[in-house]
Amino acid sequence: MRRLIHSLLMLLIIVMMSQGALARNYVLCVGLDTYPNKVGRYRVKSLHVSANDARVMKKVFAANGFSTSLLTDSAATLDAVLRTMKYRFCTAKSDDMVVFYFSGHGTEDGLLCYDKVLGNDDIVAVLKKCKAKTKMVIVDACYSGIMRTDSVWQKAFGNEDVILFLSSRNQEESFETGYSNSLFTMYLERGLRGGADVNMDSNITPKELFEFVHNGVSNDGLFTSRQHPVMWGRFDGDRPIVIWHSKKKTKNGNNQDIEDATND
Q: How many folded domains does the chain comprise?
């Protein structure tokens, strides 16, 4: 009896240790509809679906096993966003993945939180302290493509797994729709729920997601050729962003280095 109890205890310890060693994924979703009349030097108007964009993406990532955090509207101050990023992402280990999702106003200086501008330097500073090998930034905002042209990203993450998935080119607007989500996030949600898994191997890779969302947004009947999502970064093509349930299994792709090469 003692041997049986001892064996069970040892098995329990092994299981607990193995679970603790499993990779975890973290996401912070930020969305702002409501703004004050002015943020920094920018006069801004309120949006209609960005807060819901963030809530929807939180649900999508949570359904795929991510540890999620959500900030919307007046709760999404610059200080709150940075504090939450630091708290959540700095707990990540090397085999983990972290995702920062933002839906709201974008400017040439960065992303508009409720009270101040969130610049590229701010995001990079947090991500540099994060041990996770794979880092992804998803932005649904006008002119978000400008982010990929900032040399701070290349200097900070030249050879690391960092992905920028941006809703539009440098000089393009990112459109809201008559539905409950923006155009980009609408296709992003569909892609992450399985639509992007074109080879039906249950793994949705960055390349698959980019192609699905880019084609959907660029060819949408209401906004044809007015908005073109872009992706920049170096990353492991064999590592899926999400794994969803599918019966058919095939091989994953190779390493990818995607950058939209079309003219802005």
A: 1
